[in-house]
Design brief:
By secondary structure, this protein is mainly β. It has 2 domains: about 120 residues, Jelly Rolls; about 90 residues, Jelly Rolls. Strands 1, 13, 14, 15, 16, 17, 18, 19 and 20 form a 9-stranded mixed β-sheet that branches. A 7-stranded antiparallel β-sheet has the order 2-3-4-11-6-9-12, with no helix packed on it. The chain starts with a strand and ends with a strand.
Length: about 240
């Protein structure tokens, strides 16, 4: 099994006052030639947005964008007519395709927002832009890795234009389990949102990440109660 490890403190970081952001992969003014992407996973940003602040209208194209609020709310507006609030316990997918403008704001006057924004290279270019958001509470089960993203429009959670599967897990201390790849030529990037886990002889703590490839499956166990995100993607 091939492994790369990204400890939380090694990520790119920028504090703009209204935005405190950490970049697992090269983004904006942070560039690391060894950390541009993990297969089709291009961006993993860990954002803190101050109350009543946010990103103004800006463009995207030919990227699959997944937004996962961790706490607080995100107000979304875009150039294809969508407007709404994404709350903790929900996720959003936007296929930028031929091009879309959107904005993201924290609508609360006194509560900060924390979110993960993830970009995945698509397997089809110049598709019609698409937006979707859902609650994932109906899929969430304790001590289980539950699917939130897949390539299948009829599958559990939401779908993107890529042979990728995302799973979340809210796992109690001492939990042990395994993840079997949907495609053995893919890789899996594991991101610890909260807690501490062990994969083989690798220990990952809060906001650490690690990529695993050239394997069919791997074992996980928790050292403390943990929330983790697994992103299986083609290695390109």
């Amino acid at each position: 099994m091939k492994t790369i490890i990204h400890k939380a403190e090694t990520r790119g970081h920028a504090d703009h006052g209204w935005l405190n952001t950490h970049h697992t992969f090269s983004f904006a003014n942070y560039y690391n030639s060894e950390r541009v992407h993990f297969g089709a996973l291009r961006v993993l940003n860990d954002d803190w947005i101050a109350p009543a602040e946010g990103f103004g209208m800006h463009p995207h194209d030919n990227m699959e964008i997944v937004t996962i609020p961790l706490s607080g709310d995100v107000e979304h507006k875009d150039s294809i007519g969508n407007k709404g609030i994404i709350r903790s316990g929900e996720i959003q997918v936007m296929s930028a395709g031929t091009g879309v403008f959107h904005s993201e704001y924290n609508p609360n006057p006194d509560i900060p927002t924390e979110l993960l924004q993830i970009w995945v290279f698509p397997n089809k270019r110049n598709v019609q832009p698409r937006y979707e958001q859902i609650s994932i509470s109906e899929y969430e089960k304790p001590d289980e890795l539950y699917q939130i993203i897949s390539p299948d429009p009829k599958g559990q959670g939401m779908w993107i234009h890529q042979q990728s599967w995302f799973h979340l897990g809210n796992l109690s201390e001492g939990w042990e389990g395994s993840y079997t790849l949907k495609n053995s030529s893919n890789g899996v990037y594991v991101f610890v949102i909260e807690g501490s886990i062990q994969i083989g002889d690798i220990t990952l703590n809060k906001r650490d990440g690690a990529g695993f490839s050239e394997t069919d499956a791997f074992q996980l166990k928790t050292i403390a109660s943990s929330k983790i995100l697994l992103m299986e993607v083609p290695m390109l």
